[in-house]
């Protein structure tokens, strides 16, 4: 930032514009910090603290994924079954049919993009730290590509996150479910 500011002062034609842009960037950074502080406060509040701690105990799930999950899902009990939650996140299979032709298109294009992406990233980390998920991943690799296998692991991770929130019992590594 300081380098750009020094360079901006060297060019009188661009100086005002670049300095205004730098000022905007600084304001956006300050706003981002305020939002992050508020989110941390909210996650430490009585309403979210217990659920957040339970989710962070699941391999691959950190504060960011936990926060995103809790704020987007809300009350986990609003999904009467895992399949409803799975549909909301977008891990359900989809088909494309026309006349007599029916094609499997992989996972649904109807999804919660940020949440699904975060859970897939969490699954990559989870398979490194949880022996049961690593074993499941290795079994899946025998019959499909790594990207398809990690989606299946993310689905298992979602099932485990739901189970932890509903039961209130912390996650235990290495337990096959």
Give a quick summary of the entry.
The chain has 177 residues and is mostly helical. It contains eight helices and two strands; from the N terminus they run αααααββααα. A hairpin with a 2-residue loop joins strand 1 (93-98) and strand 2.
Write structural notes for this entry:
With 177 residues, the protein is mainly alpha-helical. Helix content is 67%, strand content 7%. A hairpin with a 2-residue loop joins strand 1 (93-98) and strand 2 (101-107). Helix 1 packs antiparallel against helix 2, helix 4 crosses helix 6 (113-129) and helix 6 (113-129) crosses helix 8. The longest helix is centred in the first third of the chain and has 29 residues, at 15-43. It is extended, with a radius of gyration of 22 Å. The termini are far apart.
The amount of helix comes to: 55-70%
What sort of overall outline do the alpha carbons produce when their principal axes are compared?
extended
For the record, the count of structural domains works out to 2
Uncertain stretches of 5 or more adjacent residues: none
Total E-strand runs? 2
In quaternary terms, these chains amount to single chain
Gyration radius, to the nearest Å? 22 Å
